[in-house]
């Protein structure tokens, strides 16, 4: 029970106007005293929300990306981040823009269950070539990227950084 017997939730005790959930009455500038359980509930809600976001961040940063087979990719996995291990079965293709700069790199890998095209664009493509991280035909690689499935059902793995390709041991 509130210490003031005339307490009405959401109403200023001085000017008797409805003020909602604010802490200071906008009409008479009187400070509103809320019951303790409401203040505790507000604080608990904020702490729970911040704690939940912190846990979500930690879990997202520490989880391993799952290894999947190219043949197991489905339309439900569109835009998912996955990891594939396989053999590069064609020489990488380097696309160039009108100025002759590399703006596209593409190659296919085969993992025993199917083939998938791996692609990198713009800065990522240039960084792959510059850092000598671009694999050659026959290389065993471990690659992480976002699955893109086109309307015609073609699967593609898009790289976001050159660090997403490593040579398999």
Describe the secondary-structure layout.
Layout: H1 36-62, E1 81-88, E2 93-96, E3 102-110, E4 115-121, H2 122-130, E5 140-149, E6 155-158, E7 165-167
Parallel strand pairs: 4-6
Antiparallel strand pairs: 1-3, 1-5, 2-3, 3-4, 5-6, 5-7
Compose a concise summary of this entry.
21% of the residues lie in helices and 27% in strands.
If helices are DSSP runs of H or I spanning 4 or more residues, what is the number of helices? 2
The CATH class name of the domain at 70-167 reads: Mainly Beta
Uncertain spans, ≥5 residues at pLDDT below 50? none
Proportion in β-strands: 25-35%
CATH-assigned fold name of the domain at 70-167: OB fold (Dihydrolipoamide Acetyltransferase, E2P)
- SSE pattern, N- to C-terminal: HEEEEHEEE
Q: Mind telling me the C-alpha Rg?
A: 29 Å
> How is the largest sheet built, in terms of strand order?
1-3-4-6-5
**Portion in helices:** 10-25%
Secondary structure tally: strands? 7
Assigned CATH architecture of the domain at 70-167: Beta Barrel
Q: Tell me the overall shape.
A: elongated
Computed structural class: alpha+beta
Our measurement of the CA-to-CA distance between the termini, rounded to an integer number of angstroms, reads 69 Å
